[in-house]
Automatic annotation (TrEMBL):
<dbReference type="InterPro" id="IPR050693">
    <property type="entry name" value="Hsp70_NEF-Inhibitors"/>
</dbReference>
<keyword id="KW-0256">Endoplasmic reticulum</keyword>
<dbReference type="GO" id="GO:0015031">
    <property type="term" value="P:protein transport"/>
</dbReference>
<keyword id="KW-0813">Transport</keyword>
<keyword id="KW-0653">Protein transport</keyword>
<feature type="region of interest" description="Disordered">
    <location>
        <begin position="1"/>
        <end position="43"/>
    </location>
</feature>
<dbReference type="GO" id="GO:0005783">
    <property type="term" value="C:endoplasmic reticulum"/>
</dbReference>
<feature type="compositionally biased region" description="Basic and acidic residues">
    <location>
        <begin position="16"/>
        <end position="43"/>
    </location>
</feature>
<dbReference type="GO" id="GO:0000774">
    <property type="term" value="F:adenyl-nucleotide exchange factor activity"/>
</dbReference>
<protein>
    <submittedName>
        <fullName>SIL1 factor</fullName>
    </submittedName>
</protein>
Length: 139
């Protein structure tokens, strides 16, 4: 529900409800309903006061803003796709250059298998653990 500007809002911890209190007028007395309407203008705090036309207009505005956001996100996505290429494409291009590209995950799997291998020496296992520690911190 909309709360007019200048209202005092609090959370009732016993009931969990949010409560709003309009500020007192300058003379210390509470405002009458008519005085509040004059001061607040068209702001209506009654939640059942919206007409179906107002709700339809608000929904149409939401849909328009959602379409605009989609256009912006698709534009940004196309810009990103122009700058960056998929990893599979990069791997193919590196293979043509005789350069093997591995992801961190692939390297970590190799290091774990090297550590678990009975054929590895103690120095190789220690080196694998140090390298694995580096990659784990990267991830």
């Amino acid at each position: 529900q909309a709360v007019p500007a200048g209202s005092h809002v609090r959370l009732n911890l016993q009931t969990g409800d949010r409560e709003a209190k309009l500020p007192d007028s300058e003379n210390g007395k509470g405002d009458t309903r008519e005085e509040r309407r004059k001061r607040l203008g068209k702001v209506d705090v009654d939640s059942n006061s919206f007409t179906s036309q107002e709700l339809k207009k608000a929904l149409a505005k939401m849909k328009e803003s959602e379409k605009a956001e989609r256009k912006v996100s698709s534009l940004l996505l196309s810009k990103v796709r122009k700058k960056f290429r998929p990893i599979d494409q990069l791997k193919e291009e590196f293979e043509k250059l005789n350069v093997k590209m591995e992801t961190d995950y692939e390297i970590m799997v190799k290091l774990i298998s090297k550590f678990n291998s009975s054929a590895s020496t103690l120095d190789e296992k220690v080196a694998a653990l140090y390298d694995l520690e580096y990659y784990v911190h990267q991830v």
